[in-house]
């Protein structure tokens, strides 16, 4: 016998991504707000909390987690879709800084995960280097961390497979990026662009547009460089103006007054102000992940004003 849950899905097959889609939850303004990224190759199982559960050398995962908090960084484990090592010796590491104007990416091969502790994230955040060489390229990071959330594997793995076949050098599976209910999720680094609700075809279209210098606005969760309300404001302004160029819109100022965020943008020779109200209503609650034991308020970012300056 199966039991039902809100949204009409049976409890034995309930999925947070399907429930989010059923309630027509917007994806805009849902990207994790983070600029500093470190990605460390690990082909073994990741577990639910990758840095702590994966079979990394003793103490490395806990120290990487501590440094993520210290430097306000997102530190992820990565692997190829094939789950085979990407190099004959050592492991691949990437460091990305998602600056909205001049994003940076570094990469190299180290002997093992312990060497990742030698990378200077503080200097990297300040505009310097981690100690890795600059990397003249980009990477497509698809969340497939199924032990963290079932949706990430069920919806992320087909996306990773399609991208790995089309763009083998750029594509990586990664551990949890945030926003399980928007799976399949992908982050394009070094720009820090989050995309959600992807399937293989839409993922290929997003990457094709990105390689041509454009954003795919309908599936864009946001630019991780900015707070979530500013992400929602940028996407709303781009829709209004029909601007899809990656560098076509830039934040020139941001202020917060209670639950209202006012963002000033530059677009070409013009300026625009967009105001967004952020709410978390208890009347609109839901289970936000497959493992959630209880419902939580669903955040909303509503545009309440938009004007040319």
Descriptive overview:
The protein has one domain: Glutaredoxin (3-Layer(aba) Sandwich). The longest helix is centred in the middle third of the chain and has 17 residues. It is α+β, with helices and mostly antiparallel strands and 309 residues long. A nine-stranded mixed sheet has the order 4-3-1-2-6-5-7-8-9. The protein is built from seven helices and 13 strands. Helix 5 crosses helix 6.
Order of helices and strands: HEHHEEEHEHEEEHEHEEEE
CATH architecture: 3-Layer(aba) Sandwich
Question: Per DSSP, what share of the residues sits in E-state strands of 2 or more residues?
Answer: 25-35%
Low-pLDDT ranges = 1-10
Average pLDDT, all residues: 94
Which secondary-structure class do the elements indicate? alpha+beta
Give me the side-by-side strand order of the main sheet: 4-3-1-2-6-5-7-8-9
Please write out the topology.
Blueprint: H1 16-22, E1 36-41, H2 50-53, H3 60-70, E2 73-79, E3 91-97, E4 104-110, H4 121-125, E5 139-143, H5 150-166, E6 171-174, E7 186-189, E8 193-195, H6 200-211, E9 220-223, H7 228-241, E10 250-257, E11 260-267, E12 270-286, E13 296-308
Parallel strand pairs: 1-2, 5-6
Antiparallel strand pairs: 1-3, 2-6, 3-4, 5-7, 7-8, 8-9, 10-11, 11-12, 12-13
Helix pairs in contact: 5-6
Which key phrases capture this entry?
single chain; 309 residues; alpha+beta; Glutaredoxin; 9-stranded mixed beta sheet; 4-stranded antiparallel beta sheet; 7 helices; 13 strands; 23% helix; disordered N terminus
